[in-house]
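Reviewers asked in the last cycle whether our approach scales beyond single polypeptides. To address this, we selected a multi-component target totalling 979 residues and predicted its structure end to end. The input consisted of the following lines:
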Amino acid sequence: MEEKDKENNGSSGGTTRRQFLGQVGLAGAGLQLAPLLAKATGILPDNEALPIEPITVNIMINGSQKTLTIDTRVTLLDALREKLMMTGTKKGCDHGQCGACTVLVDGRRINSCLHLAAMCEGSEVTTIEGLAKGDDLHPMQAAFLKHDGFQCGYCTPGQICSAVGLVKEGRAKTDAEIRELMSGNICRCGAYQNILAAIKEVQNA
Amino acid sequence: MNESLGKPIDRVDGRLKVTGGATYAAEYKIKNLAYGAPVLSTITKGRVKNIDIQQAEKMPGVIGVMTSENCMMLHTPSGSDPGSGKFAEKDLLPLQNDRVLYGGQYIAVVVAETAEQAEQAAATIKVTYDEQKPVVGFEANFSTAYQPGSGLGGAKTQEKRGDADAAMQSAAFTTDETYTTPVYSHNAMEPHATIAEWNGDKLTVYDATQSVMGVQGLLSNILGIPKENTQVYALYIGGGFGSKGFTWANTLLAPMAAKQFNRPVKIELKRQQVFSAAGRRTQTQQKIGLGAGVDGKLTSIKHDTISETSFVDEFVETAGVATSMIYSSPNVEVKHSLVRLNRGTPCPMRAPGESVGMYALEVAMDEMANKLKMDPVQFRITNHSDMDEQKKKQFSSKYLKECYQRGAEAIGWSNRSAEPGMTKQGNLLVGYGVATATYPANRSASSAKATLFADGHAEILCGTQDIGTGTYTVMTQVAADAFGLPVDQVKVKLGDSSYPKGAQSGGSQVSASVGPPIRAAALGAVSKVVKMAIADEKSPLYGKKEEDIVVNSGRIQFKDHSNTSESFTDVLRRKGLDKVEAQAKTNVSTRQQQDAAPAPDGSPEAKIEAESKTNAAVQADEKTDRKDYVFHSFGAQFAKVLVDPDLGTIRVEKIASVMDIGTVMNLKTATNQIMGGILFGMGMALMEETKYDPNNGRIVTRDLAQYLVPVHADIPEIDVQFIEKPDPFISPIGARGIGEIGVTGMAAAIANAIYNATGKRVRDLPITPDKLIA
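The resulting structure, written as structure tokens, was:
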């Protein structure tokens, strides 16, 4: 699914499939997949430094229109952290296994490390920095603070964005369902029980 | 009096953390920043023959490639000053020669304008090796095992009292089993990261570290620059669990590259790189022998541990260190030995020693209780140690028996069937298990500075850091009470190496170490204001005695006469002062081995020591006679598990932990800490394992899809309780650290519950379904 999206986006951006996969594969986000693909299709050039043409994308981030001219290999996560200096969104594993980079794209929670910024043309992105209204915390942020739903705070922005998305989805009715549907967000400090309490409070409000 | 200590206030840094405003090491906005991408070895042992960087150097955006051929030379750390931090691999300073001693070791760093350019260029670098046969496989190398020197903090690795072998032979009941634990990886959510920036000969480093002071000392030592030219920041740290306690090569490579290419450089490890290049827990094999009489009293305990270390440093997992003190027995023998393998160096991981050691001992205790047909809780109470029989000293305080009682009640112990496999919940087998938890209560010398401002607020500076444990919060509470101010008027600043030297975040020592000097410095500042007032004719307190003055909500007042009072602000404004400062150092160590030498003359530390001689709180604290006591925290941990008899799947349904950790400084953060420890122990028991390729010795499970940690769906109901009785000797605050003890009994409690459910004893962690139905 992810690869297919990338491919479509790559073609529409004027890059050939061959160049695109070479670039993406080596960029690290697809590090594990790329050698396999390359072997299977024989498309990965051996000794060729590919020119990277920057592209321009327009993304609505937390209600503000941003125009970015970026390397096609830049993930949404790195665009936020390194290009826009919005470091609230965290990088824990950089390949979709920990959830620290969770943001809402068009209302849907996604791992921003598995999403290229180039795929976000015209999208509305909400990050942790966009949840509070001035000094008023979003109810989920306030609930995390009240229930101590974190320790080191590194997974917290992802947990909160994921929780906001979860409540909107309206799928989770029981504790077990909340737990299951939040399992893409790892908290190594182990504040899970408090995160559950925070989510339930917001859900029942 | 203001009393915020003990109250479950929200984290003072919580707002920043829930809004994304807390800044971690890789997140500083640095002008002209370049990105470093490490290249790691793909062989496990040998020499680098050639590194072909030609193509990489020509790629767009590449600034340069740093290798052993062109990088700066480093100074070997002296290692004699314990306060100067510990470089994790003393014989492997990065890129200093062509040797490869483990898979995933740094070979080069590509520096480029963007992270994408650096990574793509790094992928083109071709390294050719002169490969040698690596030493791989733990058990396969037992024949090379040797006796190491001391463990962490000078812990003895060989202990003996009585004659354990003779006692074993004459014991009515004996058990003798072997327990194995795999390599574990910390996997703090924030990967190790460093930004380094040179300004002339001055270096600024933003590092993911558990010790800003240690990193400052090491950088100064290894790069050969004065300490005062080395500034280290770690304002927020995304977890450490020991992995950021020792310093790893990334912290050196960033300033090396920054110097070489004359650009600020950021090195942020990939999750996969963290597994090999940033520490882990060692693998262990532990043989435990127990002898007991018909009365259930232990007559002999033997604990023999083999663990492994690398070829570039020696780290001993002192698994048996608690065995000599936790139960009463006239005969004890504890041994540790080490084998060297071509692996990255192990390091402390949450409760180093006790986590794996108490797992083995506490499962052995369960096996013995079973043989004796004695209730496992009763068996532990029967063998309760009233004193440390090895060191022949009293415990500073100990309420372990109460922990067992309350924990048993909380888990529903009375529902446990003594006979395994007898209780069912639907199709699932139900089991209950118990284990004792313990961890030393460490305290070391620390300093702090307190400032009372004329506008009524106060500030604390301390060169320790908050790795997520809640140090900012509990120290704000400690300081607020000492200043006599509400918590929102007190700002605690940490994570900056220019502050007075605070403790490393390791060994559960921060609260016990920095709490007393923070309290003493704040009291010192208040005392200065009081002295000003009573000497000032214009003060309503003029001529009063200092001991008759109390502080309350920013005011100083004459005993119970609240009318005879004035605010700090009044005193300072009248004097034309905008602030009053005080510094304090408490030179107290609960580890006798640690040298508490005075600071060198003329150093900032010496100035603090001099001021501390007139600080009443420091003097009272240092005068407390501690030499007859040993300091430990204790706890009882219980688990209820459900096991599917057909599939072997295990569901932990409930955990109860009752902890005796002295004063609870903040119930909210303390409970969270213990819950975190519990889940660390649960991961250890059921899922976590770093696997090595048996042929080439490289790590196979290098990501979070293959190295499993507990996630939301795994989490049981967790009941955490505290005894809440202050430790009368550790400090005036009475609090012992709690970062680690939560892990120590958990793996055994779960393992014992699984046995109670199934009658199957798996002695090899993690207990995965395949082992259970095998």
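Chain A has three domains: 2-41, 55-130, 139-204. We regard this as preliminary and will revisit it once experimental data from Aim 1 are available.
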